[in-house]
Sequence to fold (88 residues):
Amino acid sequence: MLTPRQKKLVVKEHAIHDKDTGSTPIQVGLVSKRINELAAHLKSHPKDNHSRRGLIKMVGKRRRLLSYLAETDPKGHSALIKKMGLNK
Fold:
């Protein structure tokens, strides 16, 4: 689970303007942060199948958000992919 401080840092990193709190890049950043934390949890708890299902759902959500971003803002999509180090 992300703390409010971690969320603020992710929002600040991916925000398009000062009052931006829910744009697609921010949502992708927040989901990616949760995915990374859950992946680390699953490395130490490999039999936690309930958390594994949640991880798979989050990966699907990130994929859908990135697809939407690719349709609406291709340049922003490629910049976000590079910035986060994700595979295309």
Remarks:
- The longest helix spans residues 49-72.
- Residues 28-83 form a domain with the Helix Hairpins fold (CATH 1.10.287.10).
